[in-house]
Amino acid sequence: MTPKWNQQAALITGGASGIGFATAKRLSARGVKIALIDVNRDSLAAAAAQLPETTLAITADISSESEVGAAVSQAAERFGGLAILVNSAGITGKTKIKGHEVEPADFRRVVEINLHGSFLMTRAVLPHMIQCNYGRILLIGSIAGKEGNPGMLAYSATKAAVIGMAKSLGKDYADTGITVNALAPAVIRTPIVDALPNEIIEYMTSRIPMGRCGTLEEAASTIEHIVSPWNSFTTGFCYDLSGGRATY
Predict the structure, then answer these.
(1) Coil, helix or strand at residue 38
(2) Residue 211: how many CA atoms within 13 Å on its side-chain side?
(3) Which sequence positions are flagged as catalytic?
(4) Between 216-226 and 18-29, two packed helices, what is the crossing angle to 10 degrees?
(5) What is the pLDDT of residues 143-167, one digit of tens each?
(6) What are phi and psi of 240, to 5 degrees?
(7) How far apart are CA 13 and CA 175, in angstroms?
(8) How many CB atoms lie within 10 A of CB 151?
(9) For residues 110 and 96, which has the higher predicted lDDT (pLDDT)?
(10) How would you class 90 by CB atoms within 10 Å of its CB: exposed for 0-12, middle for 13-18, buried for 19 or more?
């Protein structure tokens, strides 16, 4: 039986700000119980204070297997299960540099957060969803993962991998009530975007036919649909949120 919104709990990484926090506000308004994960303790506490009292705030690094395992177990125990995962945590690494200038340590860190973190979070929540034969997993990719952005090698490569991960996992669990999808936003006004050099933001915005950035509200609205109970026949898919930029 498909659970109603108010019978579900969602785990949202990168939940202290940006797309993660906007999604938490949107889903909590539906009655979904929220567990926020973020590495920034102070920002996490401030975000949780703006959500219902039932909200669980967990400080954790999603690149750490032990921290992910502990966080997922804590959330599942608190809420009696987990129906939704929105993996929004991510970093760009150093930008505005060509491939031969990328430092291996920086590349590795972006892989650890964006790709390995997506894997660890998904791997940890799936057993809880399998028990209920229901779940909605959304991995946040990027249009950069489809087209590649200059000066953003590590980010583009890991977001392409995240999209591939969602496609593979979607097929793995297609015969269950669990769906796994990805979202590929173009430029959404978030702290991670605001921290980029103006030249990169201008380049990305210039490729958007609508000629503007997306908003956090638009992102959260799209995510709400993707992880909704009624969105049950789409899995292994990458949704675009690009103002017309997407080409495939």
Answers:
(1) strand
(2) 0
(3) 155
(4) 60
(5) 999 999 899 999 999 999 999 999 9
(6) -95, 145
(7) 26
(8) 20
(9) 110
(10) buried
> In terms of Cα–Cα distance, which of 210, 161, 165 is closest to 187?
210
Q: Which residue has the tokens 């292994």?
A: 236
Residue type (1 letter), 120 = L
Q: Which DSSP letter does residue 51 get?
A: S
Confidence of residue 187 (pLDDT cuts 50, 70, 90): confident
| Helix-helix angle 117-132:153-172, to 10 degrees | 20
Return phi, psi of residue 77, to 5°: -70, -40
Is the whole model's pTM more than 0.85, yes or no? yes
- Chain centroid to Cα 146, Å, comes to 16
**CB-CB contact of 6 with 30 (8 Å):** yes
Q: Which domains does the chain have, with CATH numbers?
A: 5-241 (3.40.50.720)
Instruction: Tell me how far CA of residue 19 lies from CA of 44, 78, 197, 215, in angstroms.
Output: 14, 24, 20, 9
- Partnered with residue 143 across adjacent β-strands are none
Amino acid 40: pLDDT: 95
CB atoms < 10 A from the CB of 207, how many?
Answer: 16
DSSP character at residue 17: S
